[in-house]
Write a structure and sequence with these properties.
single chain, alpha/beta, Nucleotidyltransferase, domain 5, five-stranded mixed sheet, two-stranded antiparallel sheet, 6 helices, 7 strands, 45% helix, 16% strand, globular, RNaseH-like_sf, RNaseH_sf, nucleic acid binding
């Protein structure tokens, strides 16, 4: 039994945790070359080649804004199409929920003088929060996001199995909002 986090991007983060929550695979995947459709097709294949039947999967939802919207949309749909073909259920997790799971809001400063964190600042805050919460670090922010997603998949499973898990308020809110939605389950056609 494994818990998978997938953070789709041109450099996709992939993390697999075992049934104790320990990392068994962590990779940044990018496909072959820099020209599409070859890059996208090989990246999707690379992602799905690491999946196994019975994996519990969380995938980050579509980005709200991106400079490369066509690539992002194609990649996100391509991964979901492959999950459908392999009949692998998964939960989608909104990008802001991924950050919230580790207590990062995207803002810094005191009430009344808060400033929005920019892309690289927010990524550094997320990486620091993951290290503080779980003792996990990786040089790639994509892999760190995938780690958070794998942790969310682990928490969802434990709640379903035992009904209990020790979570922070933010973590509990994220998991409960995901549990209110059914996982995307692909039935046999």
């Amino acid at each position: 039994m494994r818990f998978i986090g997938i953070d789709p991007a041109s450099k996709t983060g992939f993390v697999a945790l075992d049934d104790r929550g320990e990392v068994v695979r962590e990779k940044e995947l990018s496909g072959i070359g820099d020209k599409d459709p070859k890059r996208m097709v090989t990246l999707i294949h690379e992602i799905t080649s690491h999946l196994q039947p019975g994996d519990h999967i969380c995938i980050e939802g579509f980005p709200y804004s991106t400079q490369k919207a066509m690539f992002a949309g194609g990649l996100h749909h391509g991964i979901r199409n492959e999950l459908f073909k392999k009949r692998l259920p998964y939960h989608e997790v909104a990008p802001n929920a991924v950050k919230k799971f580790v207590g990062v809001t995207g803002w810094t400063g005191e009430k009344g003088s808060k400033k929005r964190l920019t892309g690289s600042q927010k990524k550094r805050e997320v990486m620091k929060a993951v290290f503080n919460a779980f003792g996990y670090e990786h040089r790639s922010d994509n892999v760190v996001d995938a780690y958070i997603l794998a942790r969310i998949a682990f928490a969802i499973f434990v709640i379903h199995k035992t009904g209990e898990i020790n979570l922070t308020v933010n973590q509990s809110q994220v998991v409960q909002s995901i549990l209110q939605e059914k996982p995307v389950v692909k039935k046999k056609a």
